[in-house]
Specification:
The protein has about 280 residues and is α/β, with parallel strands linked by helices. The protein is built from eleven helices and seven strands. Keywords: Oxidoreductase.
Length: about 280
């Protein structure tokens, strides 16, 4: 039986990924800081007779990650797939965001994934097979205020993933990056909520998420894509997911850096008009 470990499994993409793998016949180790919060996942597991078990693991802690993963390896044997999904999305302008928030985002989104990789990779290397999937975001390919800090963590994870793919391939270990667009998750709705700022870009981004979430893309779509990559023989590294993901990336790539800065710093009315013109999306609330 194939085994998968998924971080951040209590809600959103992690929750749907756990269900997707469970329904595909995997033994699923769903990890999260507080297993008692995963009532809905336990309910689904019982209703569908899946093989999903909950395990307490804080990706911010070296000791917690090592204890959890080494314990699972010792008890159950090799883990075939690692899905690094745990993440937080604190938002704010560079000036206004506390340094503590920058540290918290990098600790979870970037270093948390590295901790899990370092804990599980030796076993995969010994087996000469495995699959590591890192969930980043379209924000790992382009950045807009007030998500500069979040983007920085995802840019960093993309860079490490690309280097890891080079290191792991000689050992027959595949590395994939999943890049969701705007997905209907609690995290997206938190970005949708406007936080007062001296910078107008904060309200604009909240309005953009609000408009996009009127036609929501379900988190299950991302879970299915993660499972699809794990089940495939593909060595393709990057996988945008969602109807807006690839268009966003292609649109950014069509601009110079200076044009991108100019677009994002347009006067308010011009910016809303540009969103409607370029995306057919009315972002005005």
């Amino acid at each position: 039986m194939k085994r998968v470990l998924i971080t951040g499994s209590s809600r959103g993409i992690g929750f749907e990924t756990a269900l997707a793998f469970g329904r595909a016949g995997y033994q699923v180790f769903a990890t999260l800081r507080n297993p008692e919060k995963a009532i809905e996942l336990l309910k689904k597991n019982e209703e569908e007779a899946l093989m999903i078990s909950l395990h307490a693991m804080d990706v911010d802690s070296d000791e917690s990650v090592q204890a959890c993963i080494q314990g699972l390896l010792k008890k159950f044997g090799p883990i075939n797939v690692l899905v690094n999904n745990a993440g937080i999305a604190l938002k704010g302008s560079i000036e206004e965001m506390p340094i503590a928030d920058f540290k918290a985002v990098m600790e979870t989104n970037f270093l948390g994934a590295i901790r899990c990789i370092q804990a599980i990779l030796p076993s995969m290397r010994e087996q000469k097979k495995g699959c590591i999937i890192n969930v980043t975001s379209v924000s790992g390919r382009l950045t807009s205020s007030p998500l500069g800090c979040y983007s920085a963590s995802k840019f960093a994870l993309e860079a490490v993933s690309e280097a890891l793919a080079q290191e792991a391939k000689p050992f027959n270990i595949r590395v994939g990056i999943i890049e969701p667009g705007i997905i209907d998750t609690d995290m997206a709705h938190e970005i949708e909520d406007f936080a007062p700022s001296i910078y107008p870009s904060s309200k604009r981004m909240s309005d953009l998420f609000f408009a996009s979430l009127k036609n929501p893309t379900p988190a299950a779509l991302v879970g299915e894509k993660i499972l699809e990559f794990a089940e495939s023989d593909s060595w393709t590294v990057r996988h945008p997911v969602g109807p807006d993901a690839l268009p966003f990336i292609q649109w950014r790539n069509s601009m110079t850096d200076e044009q991108w800065v100019e677009w994002n710093s347009l006067p308010e009315e011009e910016w809303y008009n540009a969103v409607e013109r370029d995306f057919g999306l009315s972002a005005r609330r």
